Amino acid sequence: MPSIKFRTRLSLAFATLVALVCIQAGFIYLGSERVTFAKQHSRLASDILSDLLELSTNKQRLRVWASQRLMNGDAPIEARDRWLAGMRTSAASLRDLTQRDLDWWTRSSSARGTQVPEDVAHLAASIDLLDANIAEVQARLLRLEPLEQGAEFSSVWQQLNQVFDVTRGRDLRELVNGAIARQREAVPVARKATERAVEVLRLQAIGLAVLTLVAAVLIAIRLNRRLQAPIAGLLAGTQALQAGRMDHRLEVGSRDEFGQVAEHFNAMAAELQQRRSDAEAARHKLEAAVDARTAELQSAHVTLQNIDQRRRQLFADLSHELRTPATAIRGEAEIALRGADKPLAEYKLTLSRIVGGVEQLARVIDDLMLIARAEADQLVIRQDRVDLGLLVGDAAEQAEALGALHGVEVGLDAPHGAQPALVHVHADADRLRQALMIVLDNAVRYSRPGGAVRIGWCELDGCVEIAVRDQGIGIDADELPTVFQRFTRGQRARAHRVDGTGIGLSIAQVIVSAHEGRIDIESEPFMGTTVRIRLPRFDGIDLPMAPEAA
Hints:
The chain has twelve helices and nine strands.
């Protein structure tokens, strides 16, 4: 007899669980309907009782008001109208509630095969009497006037009581009081019925949940036992292959999916064993040749990659930055040569523009050559012992003139209690001054008119730190990691100034790195930027101090 497929077993188990869940859902739905039905009756009985008590209370208040009115006492008209309106509201609510209660009893009696209780139908039919009585009471109270001197109170009061209590020959006191008494008895009965329905629903839910859980556990145990042996065999086979035992084979114990998997596994293991033998033979032949060439190719490849990368970057930078000034120079020359002869002054103006373009071109070439030398490790740094205080002060003075042109104040912050003349760094003064002027130039150009730029320095952990702070436009946080990349300008910088190449900070970084230092930038949009240059302090005496100018 062929084995049952495992997928069939899974389908049967899943169908069984689904059927149990559906049965449980059906029982819970029917139970919730019974609870809702019983709860509806309890709420109706409670609401009817509440409206009857409210109606009776308002009628009693009107009796007191009528007696005060007859005796010339304090009987406000507003109170009379408010209580009459309350009686009409209670009567309208009772009409709706009693009709709904009658419908409930009709459905319940039809389901059980019993008769609707007589008092339920009687109360629903008596609501018209309440409306008629309220109308009669209102009409009588509207005509009610205080008794004249010497009038007999008892006869008038008896007539009023007749209006309050009797309508169409029916005693409403007996009707209302009887209804209140019946509803007081019906409310706890309805509540108990609701509680019983809830308890039945709870027991059914618990019983069905336990039944479903037991069935699920039994099915899981059965499937686990059926799965345990073949999965253990597959796991042992994969571990054997992982350990390199390609001769391991699984036992085929059934014709279901697991038996098919075992057959395919054995075929795969045999093929892997054959291919592994072939690969081992080929690998041994290749290893010797590969090992012989790997070392020299690795070295040559790294060297060529570095050379090619530097060449590509230099060509890209040259083509990017030389195109604009070269185009401008050519344009000026073509305009000068075009058409008839022009006045000498116009030729001079054209030549001056060409000279300016050439100067710009020369500056760009110098900057690019400086970066190219640095990348090729050919940047010449003529280091000497440099007085840091004098160098920073000189840079601050040059920046003051630049700041005056842009309406920006540039100031020097001297370190507290320090002696700047005694603090030196081992540096190329011209190159370091160039880096400082690049940072100061950026601080001035990207500050708003009326802003301030401060430059200062301090000693920190055996180093010296130069800080340039501005109150300018700032740099967005997502652009800070790219500020030292060549020809990179942030969106805020481009919006503030259209000119600029975006190469200054990369030059400053090259110069500082050549001095074994580091440059960092901190910035907050619209608040300002702080650039920190940290250099090693020089305390040796083996280098002579550069002679001062006379």
